[in-house]
């Protein structure tokens, strides 16, 4: 593909991504993979170049653009080489017209930027939310230790904060690594590893991971507990939860049980666990404002109404979790969001709605105290963004 053809391909992909964001369709990565699956003439360099153009445009456009061309013009304005590809030649975008409209540049839609600033993020801390993510993995200590893995992977480095974390060069084919296939490694952002430490799980305990998804934090808990005790991993998404069993087998995590829950009927399905869990981990559904480094187009999908509905879900899940914790047990609340409305404000709601519960001081290897808990930020901590709080039930 010629450079102009690459730019045109990026514009076509952006059109699809913008439409999907408007209609809550497939993610950008999925659309890019589908696009090139039907264009075998595009080599690996072409695919990489087009992908880079697409994500450069996504990161620059704060509001959801009208179309792909208005987004790509933001890239052209900052890069003369890209601007030169708008030459009208075969398979190229049309020349840039005088005063042609652009997408609005920014970190996020204006209403969302305002909410983030109200939550204590501004300047570089706000801009860094749409930066580029690192490739972090957790060493599975049921199988290996970090020193051994680092010796086997000379291009890897230890993460700055997570005790079992390593960082690989972006673009590394993790699934081709023998250590990954042997179960010694799990892909997990360093921030996700750190907030999981707030559970402080011990061998022999009974732990519920109430929103387990595909089980990243579940498997980390199994390693922390040295495969002693019980972890019940739950979710309402059948497809996501189905990915946990093969991952647990590969990781040698033998204490994990899984349970598919029916939304709004969770308490009924978990009746035998009522008041018996030493700890419950709530990695709640949220806006994902802390993960824009990995999914920058996600900010185009958010609306005030969607955030409000997510807050209701978070409160419902927290209320379910409270029924499972034994007297004196712990509840850890996590969101990969930097909005106070989904973080510390939800803890305030919980404490008011559930008398007898208290917050506990929480210290992690990174992050800073924020409201009722600790917040990790991409710019300051080099991780995805998270809020985490630890609560204690009355004895």
Helix-strand pattern, N to C? HHHHHHHEHEEHEHEHEHHEHEHEHEEEHE
Could you give the count of β-strands?
13
Strand content is 15-25%
Oligomer: single chain
Fraction of residues in helix: 25-40%
Contiguous low-pLDDT stretches (5 residues minimum) are none
| Nearest-integer average pLDDT | 95
Largest sheet: 9 strands, mixed
Could you explain the architecture of this structure?
The structure is a single chain. Helices cover 39% and strands 16% of the residues. It has helices at residues 3-23, 28-37, 44-60, 68-78, 80-84, 110-118, 124-127, 146-152, 178-181, 190-196, 216-224, 238-242, 244-251, 266-269, 304-324, 344-353, 378-381, and strands spanning 135-139, 157-158, 165-168, 185-187, 206-209, 230-235, 256-260, 277-283, 325-335, 358-359, 368-370, 373-376, 386-392. The strands form 2 sheets. Strands 5, 6, 7, 8, 9, 10, 11, 12 and 13 form a 9-stranded mixed sheet that branches. A 4-stranded antiparallel sheet has the order 2-3-1-4. It is globular. The N and C termini lie far apart (67 Å). A hairpin with a 6-residue loop joins strand 2 (157-158) and strand 3. With 395 residues, the protein is of the alpha/beta class.
Can you tag this structure with a few keywords?
alpha/beta; 395 residues; 17 helices; 16% strand
Write a concise synopsis of the structure shown.
The protein is an alpha/beta fold.
Sequence-ordered SSE layout with sheet pairings:
Blueprint: H1 3-23, H2 28-37, H3 44-60, H4 68-78, H5 80-84, H6 110-118, H7 124-127, E1 135-139, H8 146-152, E2 157-158, E3 165-168, H9 178-181, E4 185-187, H10 190-196, E5 206-209, H11 216-224, E6 230-235, H12 238-242, H13 244-251, E7 256-260, H14 266-269, E8 277-283, H15 304-324, E9 325-335, H16 344-353, E10 358-359, E11 368-370, E12 373-376, H17 378-381, E13 386-392
Parallel strand pairs: 5-6, 5-8, 6-7, 8-9
Antiparallel strand pairs: 1-3, 1-4, 2-3, 9-13, 10-13, 11-12, 12-13
């Amino acid at each position: 593909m010629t450079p102009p053809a690459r730019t045109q391909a990026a514009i076509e992909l952006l059109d699809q991504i913008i439409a999907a964001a408007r209609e809550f369709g497939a993610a950008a990565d999925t659309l890019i993979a589908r696009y090139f699956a039907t264009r075998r003439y595009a080599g690996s360099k072409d695919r990489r170049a087009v992908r880079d153009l697409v994500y450069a445009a996504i990161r620059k456009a704060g509001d959801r653009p009208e179309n792909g061309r208005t987004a790509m013009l933001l890239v052209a304005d900052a890069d003369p080489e890209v601007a030169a590809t708008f030459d009208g030649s075969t398979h190229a975008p049309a020349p840039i017209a005088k005063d042609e409209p652009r997408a609005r540049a920014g970190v996020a839609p204006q209403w969302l930027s305002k909410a983030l600033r109200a939550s204590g993020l501004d300047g570089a801390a706000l801009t860094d939310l749409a930066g580029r993510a690192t490739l972090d993995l957790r060493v599975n200590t049921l199988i290996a230790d970090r020193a051994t893995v680092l010796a086997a992977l000379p291009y890897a480095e230890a993460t700055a904060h997570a005790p079992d974390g390593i960082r690989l060069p972006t673009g590394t084919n993790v699934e081709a690594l023998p250590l990954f296939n042997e179960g010694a490694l799990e892909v997990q952002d360093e921030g996700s590893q750190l907030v999981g430490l707030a559970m402080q799980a011990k061998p022999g305990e009974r732990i519920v991971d109430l929103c387990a998804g595909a089980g990243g934090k579940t498997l980390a808990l199994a390693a922390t507990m040295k495969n002693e005790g019980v972890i019940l991993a739950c979710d309402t998404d059948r497809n996501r939860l189905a990915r946990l069993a093969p991952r647990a087998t590969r990781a040698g995590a033998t204490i994990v049980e899984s349970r598919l829950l029916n939304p709004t009927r969770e308490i009924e399905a978990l009746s035998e666990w009522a008041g018996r869990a030493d700890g419950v981990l709530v990695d709640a559904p949220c806006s994902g404002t802390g993960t824009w480094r990995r999914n920058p187009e996600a900010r185009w999908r958010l609306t005030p109404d969607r955030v409000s509905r997510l807050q209701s879900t978070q409160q419902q899940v927290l209320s379910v979790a409270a029924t499972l914790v034994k007297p004196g047990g712990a509840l850890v609340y996590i969101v990969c969001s930097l909005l106070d409305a989904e973080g510390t404000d939800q803890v305030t709601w919980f404490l008011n709605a559930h008398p007898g519960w208290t917050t506990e001081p929480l210290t992690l290897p990174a992050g800073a105290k924020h409201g009722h808990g600790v917040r990790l930020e991409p710019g300051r901590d080099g991780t995805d963004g998270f809020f985490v709080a630890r609560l204690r039930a009355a004895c």
